# Entry
Amino acid sequence: EYMGEYSRAMPFLSVVLALTLSVNIPHENALLSGRTPFVTDQIIPKKEQLADWMTSLGAQAIDESDPFSTMVAKLADAVKRFATKELEIRRKEEASLGITEEVTDSSEYPYFAFLPIFQGKAIPNGATLTWSGQCFQNITLQAVMKPNNIIDLILTMSNAKSYFCSETTLLGTTDAFKIQETFMRGSTTIEWDINESKATGIWDATHNGIRAFTFMDGMTTTLQTLTTTAEMFTSCATSTVYDWVADLNVDFLSKYRGVKMNKRSIKDVVLDESMIHSGDMFGVMRLDGLEPIMAWAMGSTTGHSAIALWHEGELYVCESTSSSSYWPTNGVQKQLYREWIPFTNATSHNIFHIPLAPKYRALFNETAAWEWFETVEGFDYGFQNMMWGTVDTVADNYPCVPPDYTRCLTWDLIEIVLPLLERYISKFTSVYDQAFNRRLGTNGLDFPGILEAAHQKGIDARTIPTIVEQDSWMYNTTRNGSPAIGPSLVCCTLVCHMWKSGGVFSEVNGTINCNEMSNWDDYTLKIFDESYVRPQQCVHADPNSSVCQLIGEYSLDVDHYNSRPPVSHMAERCPSLPPKYTKPDVC
# Structure
């Protein structure tokens, strides 16, 4: 269950699942073209479908008891097997016809290039959607309500840009999805059956309509990008990160986040414990796919953070994380620094240390911080609010893909992929249910029920995640494995809470909601020592860095480091769009 900070990016993994989990794909001969379109049935997600699909590919099925990182690794393996198989079929067809797909930006920027573009909602008996696709310049979608809870979707395409191009459409509601690849102009009528939906699902389909998305590449290129993206996550469940996987993630961070990570000739820097003080921060990056995509989502250099705390003559590292195939302890935890460093080194982490400024070191009451830590130690990782603390705006906080960064994750896609995930893997319900119900003042509603309740209250559903996460909110969670009510803390929010409880924010009367803070927010706070002279061993290992990197194969540095003075209610209403992730000064 190593959700970690990066779990806020789970909708991207959901797109992978939606695109690849295609049971009983009918291969229909396309007239004239001689090619086989990729077409799925209307898929109503059920847990057994995922297991059957994965095992049919020769991959290991996901078990609900698997740590999260293991789930991701298994899914990545299945996706890679699926894409490889489908690519072999398509390449044979294309070779027999003597054609190849047009080269696009996805060849240089392959990671998550399958992210589709939202085109609109087809409301039953409502207006017809129209758009121009990557193949067909004229596309329309009309939804007509029929008797017996059947919605006819009339999809029409015309004016193709080339004879052998294709258009791939994703259709979905909170209860079902379908993928349709089209080679030939004309109309196709798709029967959308909502009889298996609960009342809230029927409301969603009839009121919010069927969401339509298009993929920006042909299916062959899309499958290639799936393969490359899946490979990024190969080391999620391995004790060390394979070199070739690290190289993929370094390439990803360079192209998508603008972070340059170079190979280090000196991989270990010994820093005497006496040089580390209570309240100092550790920035962490593991190049396993998960932490890099969270860095991309947050605009951060790191995917994890931790804090130093002295107690009774011993130096500890306090953090919030979860157990995995390479991490034995779950939840809010502490570990002796002298044990933490070799353990993280052995599991392919890259870690730097940044010290508090003398002023804030003097303000930091390590006794008060320790006492607060004891009140939360053992609580489970903050699954309940992990995705939403950094979503402050309707559209300006979600990750976007290069080169122009105009194609981004949207709430409209989240509306179909979150319910999709929870139907396949039930533990994903915790990602949104309590957080969204709390924001609406409701209790126990499922995702379509949350959308309906928001509508009844006159709330734009897109604004639900933007409602500020309050530090005082308590959640149904676990503590040391037993049910409990307590805070929901991810890594960066725990670090912030430690500073807050220790008095670092006393100048603003503690009026910072730490549950809104990200990794970037933590290390850009102007509370670190700007006069700090790095020890010679740090300079020798990384002469061009602004921080002291302790371990790791690859160099880490931080942008906008130590640049924002603490202000009341900071990080609550802040945009963060790539590639520059520019934020107002008040953030």
Remarks:
- The longest helix spans residues 68-97.
- Confidence is low (pLDDT under 50) at residues 1-33.
- DSSP finds 16 helices and 18 strands in the chain.
- The two ends are 31 Å apart (CA to CA).
